[in-house]
Design goal:
heterodimer; A: 135 residues; alpha+beta; Immunoglobulin-like; 5-stranded mixed beta sheet; 4-stranded mixed beta sheet; 2 helices; B: 475 residues; mainly alpha; 2 domains; 3-stranded antiparallel beta sheet; 23 helices
């Protein structure tokens, strides 16, 4: 019950007021720079993707938005970060051997999804200890 | 509670018959040949190459998400790698030889005149330490193997050649039981599976001196994994190939459906090599999560740049983390648990002392790492298979990346499947693994006459592992 509560209980959304965030991401084989991007829930995020070597793409898990960039021809993607949590973005255009692992991370804060998962883990541990404890 | 599913007549016929297993093995061998050919001659772009896509995405996902959790080590019974060696030893592909006789070069060269059978595996190596080391050796090159079709082909060719060589000199499936880097962890995690092959009545075995399940008979071969069925208590070394079902002339062996994890209920008498495998696999899951799934590109490039100075640093760090840091931290937790347990009282103390004399607490507490480790590997596998599985369709139609379109799926675009759902699948799996791990840590304490407090450090270790992984994936 406690674990389910930690995972599902509605919590008040607190955080900085929404704003428009322009983020420039540089793609080169086989990574993004910056690799981790942090925004706040409610922000309008504008990602400008620039490629410095070959054609790269950017697909954002969870938000299902994508763009593509060639050297000299940046791509852009715009969305409202209305879900908190960490979302991987990955190269969407095959660019070499490590392409499937060309991954970055967008963290939409406050990251309640992670906090809930951690709380649920700790509660699960405590719960299992209580249930299976023998005096 | 268990149900002998092999008592159902048609299931019994299916399991005792050789055609199903042989048919699947021939299929996997055919796929294996395609994997080797595409690796050697196909495109070097991994995500367009059948070998990479079907070994490291399709097969791996099938193994980790379906086969091991639900069917234990059954993959080993249809694995193509030992098949040629089996056929050479048996000198037949399907039917059984009279008496289940096996042939090896060693039979002629090394055995005394008049003796039968092949050469047994050296006693010193009858454990999974060689498997632990072979897994670590493969892990060092994993970033290269996972992404290079040629490297994948060469390593698989290496496996099949070593397996063949071993089967020429040593009886049964010595490669699978003692050397295969995959077989080690598949065996350890298969203890979770809700299926098992076991004897029906141990008393029948006690009075049955022929031991046809071990030696073989006209109906089939002795256990390929050298198990004596009456002593088989876990799935770790059983591929459920059904050979013992065929050879037992007392009808005293059955294929059971049972509660998941039943093998883990006895936490005593566990082996150090298996414990180390659990710890090593836990460490490897973390390293792969950081290197392959993490956002640091320099780590990925370094891990793949085999032979460079930076790679040697990476290799040293991997080995130190896997062989020293993780086992060391776990050992500290077990020792701390002993300290928390305090001095045992009178009678319980004598029992506890007797148990500790025969058992390794370190190895026994590591039982908790079986459900935890499997959950962590499932979470890791989910993180990359669902997003990349759609590469399977084009690779099926164009396995070499030469522009073929055999099934009309060559042009299907990359589509991540349910990528936004991955954390919501990972969290419940990890929570279940954690709860089972804590329950097993407490059970270990109780079965060693320790108070529950002794299990607290190991429980904290398990919780720390899950929180650490959640942080890597979700923070």
């Amino acid at each position: 019950m406690a674990v389910a509560l930690a995972l599902l209980a509605p919590l008040p959304a607190v955080g900085a007021p929404p704003q428009e965030r322009h983020i420039a991401i540089s793609a080169r084989r086989f990574g993004f720079e910056p690799g981790t991007v942090r925004v706040n829930r409610g922000d309008t995020v504008v990602i400008s993707l620039e490629s410095v070597d070959v054609v790269h793409g950017l697909y954002l898990d969870g938000y299902r938005v994508s763009t593509k960039a060639e050297p000299g021809q940046p791509g852009e993607v715009r969305f409202v970060a209305d879900r908190d949590g960490a979302f991987h973005f990955r190269c969407a255009v095959p660019c070499g051997n490590l392409h499937p692992f060309m991954i970055g991370k967008l963290v939409v804060g406050p990251n309640l999804t992670w906090l809930r998962a951690v709380a649920a883990s700790l509660l699960a541990t405590a719960g299992a200890l209580v249930v299976f404890w023998r005096a | 509670m268990r149900w002998a599913i092999s008592d159902v007549p048609w299931v019994n016929r299916l399991l005792r018959g050789r055609w199903l297993q042989w048919g699947i093995t021939v299929f996997t061998l055919a796929v294996f040949v395609v994997v080797i050919l595409t690796g050697l001659f196909g495109t070097p772009a991994g995500n367009h190459n059948f070998g990479i896509v079907y070994v490291w995405l399709v097969w791996w996902a099938l193994l980790k998400l379906v086969l091991v959790p639900f069917l234990g080590r059954s993959w080993c019974s249809v694995c193509p790698i030992p098949a040629p060696g089996d056929w050479l030893q048996r000198r037949t592909m399907i039917t059984a030889r009279p008496g289940g006789k096996l042939y090896t070069i060693a039979t002629k060269l090394f055995r005394k005149v008049g003796s039968v059978g092949a050469r047994p595996w050296p006693r010193l190596l009858r454990n999974i330490w060689p498997q632990n080391l072979s897994f670590l050796a493969v892990a060092l090159f994993s970033a290269l193997i996972l992404t290079s079709p040629l490297a994948t082909a060469l390593i698989l060719l290496g496996f099949i050649l070593v397996s063949l060589l071993v089967s020429l000199f040593f009886e049964r499936r010595a490669f699978c039981r003692y050397l295969c880097p995959i077989g080690g962890f598949v065996g350890v995690y298969s203890q979770i599976a809700p299926v098992a092959v076991r004897v029906k009545d141990p008393a029948v075995c006690a009075s049955h001196t022929d031991k046809t399940c071990y030696i073989g008979s006209d109906a089939g071969y002795g256990c390929p994994y050298s198990n004596l069925l009456q002593k088989l208590e876990t799935n770790t070394y059983c591929s459920m190939c059904g050979e013992c079902l065929r050879t037992c002339n007392r009808d005293n062996i059955a294929f059971y459906v049972r509660g998941p994890g039943a093998d883990l209920l006895n936490t005593r008498g566990r082996r150090l090599d298996e414990a180390f495998n659990g710890l090593m696999m836990l460490g490897a899951a973390f390293i792969y999560s950081v290197v392959l799934i993490g956002p640091d590109s320099w780590l990925k490039v370094t891990a793949r740049a085999v032979g460079t100075p930076a790679w040697f640093v990476y290799a040293a760090a991997l080995l130190a983390f896997d062989m020293l840091a993780v086992p060391g931290l776990f050992w500290l937790c077990v020792r701390l648990g002993q300290a928390l347990a305090g001095k045992p009282k009178a009678v319980a103390g004598q029992v506890a002392a007797r148990i500790r004399k025969g058992d390794s607490l370190f190895a026994d507490y590591a039982t908790a790492l079986v459900p935890l480790g499997l959950a962590i590997w499932i979470a890791f596998t989910l993180s990359f298979t669902m997003t990349n599985l759609s590469y399977a369709w084009p690779a099926l139609s164009d396995p070499f990346g030469w522009g073929w379109n055999l099934f009309g799926t060559a042009d299907m675009a990359w589509t991540p499947y349910l990528s936004g759902m991955i954390p919501y699948l990972q969290v419940p799996v990890l929570l279940v693994g954690l709860i089972l791990a804590v329950a097993l840590a407490l059970r270990t304490a109780h079965q060693h006459q320790q108070p529950s407090t002794a299990a607290l450090p190991v429980s904290a270790f398990c919780a720390l592992a899950v929180v650490g992984l959640l942080t890597l994936y979700m923070a």
